[in-house]
# Entry
Amino acid sequence: MQDCGRFDVFLVSLEAFNLLIANAIPMIRTNPQLILHCYLDSLLLKRNRKEFMKEQIMYDLSKVN
# Structure
């Protein structure tokens, strides 16, 4: 994986969040804190679901090899 520093993910549903986690497992193995950030951001997303707003989530991947 090329180190891009960070990547942006736009989530609109819990299903999209689950898909992100499924695809991020290799990165989570090298950076366990990634899943914690995903979990916290998903709670914020659920709180704002009524507004149907896309939440921008940015992960700093600068330390992932």
User: Anything to note?
Assistant: The first helix runs from residue 14 to 30. The chain has one domain: 6-60. The radius of gyration is 12 Å. The beta strands are 6-11, 55-60.
